[in-house]
Amino acid sequence: MGMMPERPGDWEPCPTRADKRDIASDFGRAATTYEQASRLQRMMGMRMLERLSVERASPLRILDLGCGTGWFSRALARRYPDAVIVGADLAEGMVSRARAGGGAAFLAADAEALPFVSGGFDLVFSNLMIQWCSEPEQVLSECRRLLRPGGWLALSTLLEGTLSELRQAWAVADPGRPHVNEFVPETCWRTTVTGVLPGADCVAETLRLPYDSPMALNRELKGLGATFKGDGRRRSLTAPGRFRAMVRAYPVADGDGVLASYRAGWVYWSAR
């Protein structure tokens, strides 16, 4: 992993500092394949909807931050039919796809500097977006700014330990060359979140999803636009021999396929 933060609690979910243009481009290109590949995204987002039901949230103005193709914007519209839904995403390609599906108002926007008035939302819903941001503390501050008193933030992210099997396999197949995105350690995540959002409930759990093969996992990540985004990534195609070596090194599950681990984190916070 890259250098640790200078101050305890500083959140550096992407130490390799992917450029925003690369992030927007990668996810924009994946707009047509994203929904078919988004098993993890739906699982984690549905957890947040369940929690909001338990909390008996009844929002009238909702921001889906990092809305992607708008799947959860439409799910929120069905759950809260009286609410006004706004979806925002950095990737123009995702926003265009979301607009085609309807169900909400969509715009391209940077989560670190959102073009909305303070206190304008009853719910900010953000599913697996913040881990791609270079200044996550600023994103959390923006979410806090946008919520009216009594409003809710429901946010999910990925933490250190995600795709550990794939990381280990690539370390054997292509030593010294990063292939898997780095994510923030859980202790730093908790410290940073509660520093910006006092009293926030931070929940972490390891999820494991089955795949037919390591290459099926690789295809799913590509379909999501979630391939490696750091400065050390290869700008040319990875040689087939390296892929074969990665497959051989990937740990096999008890059945015919393989498993991939995701260290999932959720944040729930009610504005005061």
Question: In short, what is this structure?
Answer:
The protein has 272 residues and is an alpha/beta fold.
Set down the secondary structure blueprint.
Layout: H1 20-29, H2 34-37, H3 39-54, E1 61-65, H4 71-79, E2 84-89, H5 92-101, E3 105-108, E4 121-126, H6 136-146, E5 147-159, H7 164-173, H8 186-196, E6 201-211, H9 214-224, H10 240-249, E7 258-270
Parallel strand pairs: 1-2, 1-4, 2-3, 4-5
Antiparallel strand pairs: 5-7, 6-7
Throw out a few tags for this protein:
single chain, 272 residues, alpha/beta, globular, disordered N terminus
The portion of residues forming beta strands comes to: 15-25%
Query: What coarse outline follows from CA principal-axis ratios?
Result: globular
Q: Spatial order of the strands in the main sheet?
A: 3-2-1-4-5-7-6
Given the helix and strand composition, which structural class is it? alpha/beta
Largest sheet: 7 strands, mixed
What's the rounded overall pLDDT mean? 90
Annotation field: number of helices = 10
What is the total tally of β strands?
7
Helix content: 25-40%
Terminal CA distance reads 37 Å
Radius of gyration: 18 Å
Order of H and E elements = HHHEHEHEEHEHHEHHE
Low-confidence stretches: 1-16
Description:
The chain has helices at residues 20-29, 34-37, 39-54, 71-79, 92-101, 136-146, 164-173, 186-196, 214-224, 240-249; strands spanning 61-65, 84-89, 105-108, 121-126, 147-159, 201-211, 258-270. Helix 5 links the parallel strand 2 (84-89) and strand 3. The chain is built from ten helices and seven strands. The relative contact order is 0.19. With 272 residues, it is α/β, with parallel strands linked by helices. It has a seven-stranded mixed β-sheet with strand order 3-2-1-4-5-7-6, sandwiched between helices. Helix 1 (20-29) packs parallel to helix 5 (92-101) and helix 7 (164-173) crosses helix 10 (240-249).
